[in-house]
Design brief:
Elements lengths: L4 H8 L9 E4 L7 E6 L4 E6 L10 H13 L6 E5 L2 E5 L4 E2 L2 H6 L1 H14 L13 H14 L8 H13 L7 E3 L8 E3 L4 E3 L6 E3 L1 H12 L3 H12 L5 H28 L7 H23 L1
Antiparallel strand pairs: 1-2, 2-3, 3-5, 4-5, 6-8, 7-10, 8-9
Protein backbone atom coordinates (compact mmCIF):
# COMPACT_ATOMS: atom_id res chain seq x y z
CA UNK A 1 0.00 0.00 0.00
CA UNK A 2 1.35 3.43 -0.94
CA UNK A 3 0.77 6.72 0.87
CA UNK A 4 -2.00 8.68 -0.82
CA UNK A 5 -1.79 12.43 -1.21
CA UNK A 6 -4.97 12.89 0.84
CA UNK A 7 -3.51 10.84 3.72
CA UNK A 8 -0.27 12.83 3.54
CA UNK A 9 -2.25 16.06 3.72
CA UNK A 10 -4.33 14.79 6.67
CA UNK A 11 -1.15 13.90 8.55
CA UNK A 12 0.57 17.20 7.69
CA UNK A 13 -2.46 19.11 9.01
CA UNK A 14 -2.12 17.73 12.53
CA UNK A 15 -0.95 20.50 14.94
CA UNK A 16 2.03 18.59 16.32
CA UNK A 17 4.98 18.77 14.00
CA UNK A 18 8.19 20.76 14.29
CA UNK A 19 9.46 21.62 10.84
CA UNK A 20 9.33 19.31 7.84
CA UNK A 21 7.99 15.76 8.26
CA UNK A 22 8.79 12.39 6.71
CA UNK A 23 5.96 9.85 6.51
CA UNK A 24 6.36 6.09 6.00
CA UNK A 25 3.84 3.26 6.15
CA UNK A 26 3.93 1.12 9.27
CA UNK A 27 3.05 -2.44 8.32
CA UNK A 28 0.72 -4.55 10.40
CA UNK A 29 -2.89 -4.33 11.52
CA UNK A 30 -6.00 -5.57 9.75
CA UNK A 31 -8.48 -2.83 10.61
CA UNK A 32 -6.54 0.45 10.99
CA UNK A 33 -3.93 2.32 8.92
CA UNK A 34 -0.69 3.32 10.71
CA UNK A 35 2.28 5.45 9.72
CA UNK A 36 5.60 6.52 11.22
CA UNK A 37 6.02 10.29 11.10
CA UNK A 38 9.39 11.91 11.78
CA UNK A 39 9.74 15.64 12.34
CA UNK A 40 12.80 17.64 13.39
CA UNK A 41 12.57 16.45 17.01
CA UNK A 42 11.34 12.84 17.16
CA UNK A 43 9.34 10.01 15.62
CA UNK A 44 5.65 9.31 16.15
CA UNK A 45 3.10 6.66 15.19
CA UNK A 46 -0.02 8.03 13.51
CA UNK A 47 -2.96 5.64 13.36
CA UNK A 48 -6.23 6.25 11.57
CA UNK A 49 -9.35 4.50 12.86
CA UNK A 50 -13.00 5.45 13.31
CA UNK A 51 -15.50 4.15 15.84
CA UNK A 52 -16.56 0.60 14.98
CA UNK A 53 -19.78 0.02 16.95
CA UNK A 54 -20.20 -3.36 15.26
CA UNK A 55 -16.92 -4.36 16.98
CA UNK A 56 -17.68 -2.51 20.26
CA UNK A 57 -14.75 -0.17 19.47
CA UNK A 58 -15.05 3.47 20.54
CA UNK A 59 -12.03 5.71 20.10
CA UNK A 60 -12.66 8.03 23.05
CA UNK A 61 -12.60 5.01 25.33
CA UNK A 62 -9.48 3.68 23.63
CA UNK A 63 -7.72 7.04 24.01
CA UNK A 64 -8.56 7.20 27.71
CA UNK A 65 -7.20 3.66 28.15
CA UNK A 66 -4.02 4.50 26.20
CA UNK A 67 -3.46 7.53 28.42
CA UNK A 68 -4.06 5.43 31.52
CA UNK A 69 -1.67 2.75 30.26
CA UNK A 70 1.00 5.40 29.71
CA UNK A 71 0.51 6.80 33.22
CA UNK A 72 0.79 3.28 34.59
CA UNK A 73 4.01 2.68 32.66
CA UNK A 74 2.81 0.10 30.11
CA UNK A 75 2.34 2.10 26.90
CA UNK A 76 3.98 4.86 24.86
CA UNK A 77 2.86 8.45 25.36
CA UNK A 78 -0.30 9.61 23.60
CA UNK A 79 0.11 13.06 22.02
CA UNK A 80 -3.16 13.45 20.10
CA UNK A 81 -6.54 11.73 19.84
CA UNK A 82 -9.54 12.91 17.87
CA UNK A 83 -11.23 12.97 14.48
CA UNK A 84 -10.33 9.35 13.83
CA UNK A 85 -6.60 9.85 14.46
CA UNK A 86 -4.34 8.83 17.34
CA UNK A 87 -0.69 9.90 17.62
CA UNK A 88 1.67 8.13 20.01
CA UNK A 89 5.40 8.03 20.61
CA UNK A 90 7.41 5.77 18.31
CA UNK A 91 9.49 3.48 20.53
CA UNK A 92 11.73 1.93 17.91
CA UNK A 93 11.24 -1.35 19.74
CA UNK A 94 11.13 -4.91 18.41
CA UNK A 95 7.64 -6.12 17.55
CA UNK A 96 7.11 -9.60 18.93
CA UNK A 97 6.10 -12.58 16.82
CA UNK A 98 4.88 -16.00 17.97
CA UNK A 99 8.43 -17.31 18.47
CA UNK A 100 9.26 -14.31 20.67
CA UNK A 101 6.22 -15.01 22.83
CA UNK A 102 7.24 -18.64 23.27
CA UNK A 103 10.76 -17.54 24.25
CA UNK A 104 9.53 -14.98 26.81
CA UNK A 105 6.62 -16.67 28.57
CA UNK A 106 7.64 -15.72 32.10
CA UNK A 107 8.39 -12.08 31.18
CA UNK A 108 5.07 -11.72 29.41
CA UNK A 109 3.14 -13.39 32.23
CA UNK A 110 4.63 -10.88 34.68
CA UNK A 111 3.79 -7.97 32.34
CA UNK A 112 0.19 -9.16 31.96
CA UNK A 113 -0.27 -9.68 35.70
CA UNK A 114 1.06 -6.19 36.44
CA UNK A 115 -1.18 -4.68 33.77
CA UNK A 116 -4.23 -6.52 35.11
CA UNK A 117 -3.73 -5.45 38.70
CA UNK A 118 -2.37 -1.91 38.19
CA UNK A 119 -4.61 -0.52 35.47
CA UNK A 120 -7.85 -0.28 37.51
CA UNK A 121 -6.22 2.52 39.55
CA UNK A 122 -5.75 4.60 36.38
CA UNK A 123 -9.00 4.04 34.44
CA UNK A 124 -11.28 7.08 34.43
CA UNK A 125 -15.04 7.50 33.99
CA UNK A 126 -17.66 4.78 33.67
CA UNK A 127 -16.39 1.21 33.82
CA UNK A 128 -16.79 -1.02 30.77
CA UNK A 129 -16.49 -4.76 30.47
CA UNK A 130 -15.26 -7.26 27.91
CA UNK A 131 -16.76 -10.72 28.25
CA UNK A 132 -15.97 -12.77 25.17
CA UNK A 133 -19.15 -14.83 25.36
CA UNK A 134 -21.28 -11.70 25.26
CA UNK A 135 -19.20 -10.48 22.30
CA UNK A 136 -19.82 -13.75 20.46
CA UNK A 137 -23.55 -13.58 21.11
CA UNK A 138 -23.69 -9.97 19.94
CA UNK A 139 -21.63 -10.78 16.84
CA UNK A 140 -24.17 -13.49 16.04
CA UNK A 141 -26.96 -10.92 16.12
CA UNK A 142 -24.92 -8.56 13.92
CA UNK A 143 -24.15 -11.34 11.43
CA UNK A 144 -27.78 -12.46 11.29
CA UNK A 145 -28.98 -8.92 10.67
CA UNK A 146 -26.28 -8.34 8.06
CA UNK A 147 -27.11 -11.59 6.23
CA UNK A 148 -23.62 -12.98 6.57
CA UNK A 149 -22.61 -15.71 4.15
CA UNK A 150 -22.20 -17.91 7.26
CA UNK A 151 -25.53 -17.07 8.90
CA UNK A 152 -26.62 -20.71 8.69
CA UNK A 153 -23.72 -21.67 10.99
CA UNK A 154 -24.52 -19.23 13.79
CA UNK A 155 -26.47 -21.68 15.94
CA UNK A 156 -23.49 -24.06 15.97
CA UNK A 157 -21.14 -21.21 16.91
CA UNK A 158 -23.41 -20.18 19.78
CA UNK A 159 -23.54 -23.79 20.98
CA UNK A 160 -19.73 -23.92 21.05
CA UNK A 161 -19.64 -20.66 23.01
CA UNK A 162 -22.14 -21.98 25.56
CA UNK A 163 -20.09 -25.17 25.97
CA UNK A 164 -16.90 -23.19 26.60
CA UNK A 165 -18.54 -20.66 28.92
CA UNK A 166 -19.99 -23.42 31.09
CA UNK A 167 -16.54 -24.64 32.19
CA UNK A 168 -15.09 -21.25 33.13
CA UNK A 169 -14.16 -20.91 36.77
CA UNK A 170 -14.68 -17.83 38.94
CA UNK A 171 -11.68 -15.49 38.93
CA UNK A 172 -11.15 -11.94 40.23
CA UNK A 173 -12.24 -9.05 38.02
CA UNK A 174 -9.19 -7.24 36.62
CA UNK A 175 -8.56 -4.84 33.71
CA UNK A 176 -7.47 -6.78 30.66
CA UNK A 177 -6.05 -5.95 27.23
CA UNK A 178 -8.22 -8.42 25.27
CA UNK A 179 -6.22 -8.29 22.03
CA UNK A 180 -2.93 -9.97 22.91
CA UNK A 181 -1.64 -10.66 19.44
CA UNK A 182 2.15 -11.09 19.53
CA UNK A 183 2.49 -7.87 17.51
CA UNK A 184 0.87 -5.88 20.34
CA UNK A 185 3.86 -6.67 22.57
CA UNK A 186 7.05 -4.65 22.02
CA UNK A 187 10.56 -5.11 23.44
CA UNK A 188 12.93 -2.10 23.54
CA UNK A 189 15.82 -4.20 24.85
CA UNK A 190 15.24 -3.19 28.47
CA UNK A 191 11.56 -3.86 29.00
CA UNK A 192 8.28 -4.90 27.40
CA UNK A 193 5.49 -2.57 26.27
CA UNK A 194 1.86 -3.01 25.28
CA UNK A 195 0.06 -1.18 22.46
CA UNK A 196 -3.43 -1.06 20.91
CA UNK A 197 -6.19 -0.86 23.51
CA UNK A 198 -9.30 -0.96 21.30
CA UNK A 199 -10.84 -3.90 23.19
CA UNK A 200 -9.45 -3.32 26.69
CA UNK A 201 -11.90 -3.49 29.58
CA UNK A 202 -12.74 -5.13 32.87
CA UNK A 203 -12.81 -8.92 32.68
CA UNK A 204 -11.03 -11.89 34.21
CA UNK A 205 -7.45 -12.88 33.44
CA UNK A 206 -8.45 -15.94 31.46
CA UNK A 207 -9.22 -14.29 28.13
CA UNK A 208 -5.84 -12.54 27.95
CA UNK A 209 -4.04 -15.75 28.92
CA UNK A 210 -6.00 -17.83 26.43
CA UNK A 211 -5.83 -15.22 23.67
CA UNK A 212 -2.07 -14.99 24.03
CA UNK A 213 -1.75 -18.78 23.94
CA UNK A 214 -3.95 -19.22 20.88
CA UNK A 215 -2.51 -16.24 18.99
CA UNK A 216 1.07 -17.42 19.58
CA UNK A 217 0.30 -21.10 18.98
CA UNK A 218 1.47 -22.27 22.41
CA UNK A 219 1.40 -26.02 22.92
CA UNK A 220 0.02 -27.68 26.07
CA UNK A 221 3.31 -27.51 27.98
CA UNK A 222 3.84 -23.85 27.05
CA UNK A 223 0.26 -23.02 28.04
CA UNK A 224 0.82 -24.70 31.41
CA UNK A 225 4.01 -22.68 31.83
CA UNK A 226 2.10 -19.48 31.10
CA UNK A 227 -0.57 -20.33 33.68
CA UNK A 228 2.04 -21.33 36.26
CA UNK A 229 3.97 -18.09 35.75
CA UNK A 230 0.86 -15.93 35.96
CA UNK A 231 -0.80 -17.67 38.93
CA UNK A 232 2.53 -18.46 40.64
CA UNK A 233 1.85 -22.15 40.93
CA UNK A 234 1.19 -25.25 38.87
CA UNK A 235 -2.34 -25.10 37.37
CA UNK A 236 -4.87 -27.70 38.48
CA UNK A 237 -7.04 -29.61 36.03
CA UNK A 238 -9.99 -27.19 36.30
CA UNK A 239 -7.78 -24.20 35.51
CA UNK A 240 -6.20 -25.98 32.54
CA UNK A 241 -9.63 -26.99 31.26
CA UNK A 242 -10.96 -23.43 31.57
CA UNK A 243 -7.89 -22.14 29.76
CA UNK A 244 -8.22 -24.65 26.92
CA UNK A 245 -11.91 -23.82 26.58
CA UNK A 246 -11.18 -20.09 26.55
CA UNK A 247 -8.64 -20.65 23.77
CA UNK A 248 -11.48 -22.12 21.72
CA UNK A 249 -13.63 -19.11 22.59
CA UNK A 250 -10.79 -16.78 21.60
CA UNK A 251 -10.49 -18.40 18.18
CA UNK A 252 -14.27 -18.38 17.70
CA UNK A 253 -14.39 -14.71 18.58
CA UNK A 254 -11.55 -13.96 16.14
CA UNK A 255 -13.34 -15.85 13.38
CA UNK A 256 -16.60 -14.02 14.06
CA UNK A 257 -14.72 -10.70 14.28
CA UNK A 258 -13.53 -11.43 10.74
CA UNK A 259 -17.02 -12.39 9.59
CA UNK A 260 -18.34 -9.05 10.84
CA UNK A 261 -15.38 -7.31 9.20
CA UNK A 262 -16.32 -8.98 5.90
CA UNK A 263 -19.56 -6.99 6.10
CA UNK A 264 -18.34 -3.64 7.39
CA UNK A 265 -14.59 -3.12 6.88
CA UNK A 266 -12.43 -2.70 3.81
CA UNK A 267 -8.81 -2.33 4.95
CA UNK A 268 -6.37 -2.13 2.02
CA UNK A 269 -4.75 -5.46 1.24
CA UNK A 270 -6.74 -7.46 3.80
CA UNK A 271 -8.63 -10.60 2.74
CA UNK A 272 -11.21 -11.03 5.50
CA UNK A 273 -12.73 -14.14 3.95
CA UNK A 274 -9.36 -15.88 4.02
CA UNK A 275 -8.79 -14.70 7.59
CA UNK A 276 -12.20 -16.03 8.61
CA UNK A 277 -11.45 -19.42 7.07
CA UNK A 278 -8.02 -19.55 8.70
CA UNK A 279 -9.47 -18.96 12.15
CA UNK A 280 -12.31 -21.43 11.65
CA UNK A 281 -9.74 -24.07 10.74
CA UNK A 282 -7.71 -23.25 13.85
CA UNK A 283 -10.91 -23.38 15.91
CA UNK A 284 -11.70 -26.88 14.61
CA UNK A 285 -8.22 -28.04 15.62
CA UNK A 286 -8.51 -26.46 19.08
CA UNK A 287 -11.95 -28.00 19.63
CA UNK A 288 -10.61 -31.45 18.72
CA UNK A 289 -7.79 -31.06 21.24
CA UNK A 290 -10.12 -29.74 23.93
CA UNK A 291 -12.76 -32.43 23.54
CA UNK A 292 -10.26 -35.28 23.26
CA UNK A 293 -8.57 -34.10 26.47
CA UNK A 294 -11.51 -32.99 28.63
CA UNK A 295 -14.65 -34.67 27.26
Amino acid sequence: MTLSESTRMDIAALPLWRGEIKVTLLKGGISNESYVVEDEQRKYVVRFGKDYPFHHVFRDREAMTAQAAHRAGFAPELFHAGDGVMVTAFLGAKTFNAADVRANIRRIAELIRQFHTTMPEHILGPGFMFWVFHVIRDYARTLQKGRSRLASELDSYLAIAAEMEAVQRPLPIIFSHNDLLPANILDDGDRLWLIDFEYAGFSTAMFDLAGLASNAGLDAAESDALLAAYFKGAPDIELKRAHAAMQCASLLREAMWSMVSELYLDAPGVDYVAYTNENLQRLDQALDRYRSTYA
